[in-house]
Amino acid sequence: MKSNIQDSKQNYTQTMGKRLLFIMALFLFGFSIQAQDKKAKDLLDQVTAKVKSYNNITIDFKYSLNNAKENINQDSKGNVTMKGNQYVLNFMGVTKIFDGQKTYTIVPEDEEITISTVNEKDDDSITPSKMLTFFNSGYKYSMDILQNVKGRKIQYIKLVPVSAKDQRKEVLLGIDVQTKHIYNLIEVGKKGTKTTLTVNSFKTNQPLSKNQFTFAGSKYPNYYINKLD
């Protein structure tokens, strides 16, 4: 029974982590979409140029999952540090490290580490190398509302999936007009589920350790190592 509970919990954590990476991909780098609205494209191009100009990015964020019909209201906090195609993500008590070749998923509560090689040909895998081109097609987008949030002007861009099979009704990307940084991303599902990723802190070009994205097995002497390949 305990094993089944742990497996279920791990699957849930992995699903949430994958979903978060999916959102982060759009959140940071998914702006090279086919032009359909010149103003929206110009703004997204400015955001992209800003992101590409940084050597590294560190973000503290809040992740919210809401569905009124199902009475679901969950909030989680996390942080991610990225440099090139490498990253360290801390979310829901789990640490995920990608060193450019392998992904290390560290679950302290279960004392387990899963190691896997990223398959670039897997369409379902969200990898840093795909982040620049993830949303190159399949979406219509346009300028949406301009909001004043605590003195900041936030311009939203609406992205609508072209495919009728897509479970998302729309995605709203909030951009700080002055800094050209992302304020938040709101994903609205067709069944009423809404996920929101909000930036609490956006830091760039921070001094990082040379081993920032290196997995050190010696730190986890008693952990079970699960190698998927």
From TrEMBL:
Assigned keywords, A-Z:
Lipoprotein, Signal
InterPro entries in alphabetical order: LolA/LolB/LppX (IPR029046), OM_lipoprot_carrier_LolA-like (IPR004564)
The question of whether Signal is a record keyword is answered with: yes
Q: Name one Pfam family in it.
A: LolA_2
- UniProt-recorded name of the protein: Outer membrane lipoprotein-sorting protein
Which organism does this record belong to?
Answer: Flavobacterium omnivorum
